[in-house]
Design a protein that fits this description.
Elements: E1 6-9, H1 20-30, E2 38-43, E3 49-54, E4 56-59, E5 62-67, H2 72-79, E6 82-89, E7 92-103, H3 106-118, E8 124-126, E9 129-131, E10 145-158, E11 164-169
Antiparallel strand pairs: 1-11, 2-3, 2-6, 4-5, 5-10, 6-7, 7-10, 8-9, 10-11
Length: 175
């Protein structure tokens, strides 16, 4: 299980530190069946940010997302794996920071494709990527690469009781 090695209470109003389990449990319960939009921000070669909505799922304590090989997101990640993923969950807004790397392992591809299918997207594994009859326009043309986020830091701001704001560190950041 992904557990933070350090936390910091960011709340300025006297609220207690939020437990990581709160965000993690909502991710596990709501992906892929809830109508969630995840936004992935990557770094362009010239250093400017690029953000795009993506279909993401939390599987076995890891966040996965997809992108076509020709998308700006995939090209950016090939050059620089640093990225951030943001999502508004039930009761908590969450930003996840880390590095995303392409997944080509057949067993992992099939496991994640099965989770996508359970949420209504008919993903199948084709070679070392995913395919389906349709996807969001931001995903690019099939096949779609699957990426695994290696979590380094997360920030959660609770919009429901108990309120609060917390940063969780999972591994030392390189910058």
């Amino acid at each position: 299980m992904t557990k933070p090695h350090a936390t910091k209470n960011l709340d300025r109003y006297g609220c207690a530190e939020l437990p990581w389990s709160r965000a993690r449990d909502v991710l596990a319960e709501d992906t892929p069946t809830a109508d969630l939009t995840f936004f992935v921000t990557t770094v362009r070669p010239d250093g400017r940010p690029h953000s795009a909505g993506v279909g993401a799922v939390w599987v076995d304590d890891v966040l996965y997302f997809k992108g076509g090989p020709g998308t700006r997101r995939s090209r950016n990640l090939a050059a620089n794996p640093a990225c951030a993923v943001s999502v508004r969950l039930r009761g908590i807004d969450l930003t996840l920071e880390g590095e995303a790397h392409r997944v080509t392992d057949p067993a992992t591809l099939e496991r994640v494709a099965a989770v996508y299918r359970s949420g209504g997207w008919p993903a199948t594994v084709e070679g070392d990527a995913l395919t389906a009859p349709f996807s969001a326009p931001s995903a690019g043309a099939p096949p779609w690469y699957l990426y695994r986020l290696t979590l380094r830091r997360a920030i959660g701001v609770a919009g429901a009781e108990p309120h609060g704001a917390t940063r969780w560190d999972f591994a030392p950041l390189t910058s």
